[in-house]
Amino acid sequence: MGTSSSSNGSPSGRPIVPPWTPPPLPPPPADGDNGNEEDGEGDGQNTQPQSAAPLAPSPIAPAGRFQPARLNLGRFANNGSRDSMRRAVGHYVHKGLQGSSNAVGRFGGTTRAAGSLYNALSTLASGQAESGSPLDRRLLAGKTAQEVMAAIIEAARPVDGTQDAEAARDAMQRALAAMLEEFPDADLLDLTDEQRLFAIERYLALDVFNRACLDLGKAIFRSAPSVASALSRMGDLRDYFRETISAQFRRLRAAGGTLSARRISELARNALREAFQVFEVDAT
After folding, report:
1. Per-residue model confidence (pLDDT) at position 240
2. How many other CB atoms sit within 10 Å of the CB of residue 158?
């Protein structure tokens, strides 16, 4: 994303989990839910469904919390050591985000948006959007893939002026583009469950990667021997996030269960928790 090489990262002295980060959703009922009425997302809009109990106060970010991650990321950028890359991500979670539990809370907006994205895609496929809404299939008929993706993203994650929203929207656009590359015959107005889940899986990894780039700032571009090398290292880092997060998401999804926006948010949250635990091992 455009800000990944220019941001100086989140400052210290502020909560690890910003106050605007939404709390986790309550788990879906044992017999499943419809993903619409109970979630408050029947037309694909990014409304705020009922939340679980409030979380404990977030710890305050200590000074220099990203220094170990940046140091190792710089080494990775310079010599391509994957051990340094893994240590950088481990330190990002362990010290930068104060552990996997706080890291999951920090990405509460990501897991909520995963459910909203799934709901928007499902609403399109079912043709049940309200007449005249951004996801009304009649209004989207004949539109280009880019125009349809823009409507989906606007429904799932509207602009709100935050870097989190910018990162999420970029991740959604890239995830949907990757899905179309993986499934060349896919119809954005009528995606299968397999295609929707692929898009969600990619979105999760890309959003975490985008946020990490914003937090870690210019470490790779400052230390890489060339711009081409920096871009290659960024690709390696993105792949590492994707491989780890996608593996956890697929493993949890294999357990089955009725799919809904709330269920997808729960799966996303659990997948990130387990992926962050995997990442954190490399900080020790």
Report:
1. 97
2. 13
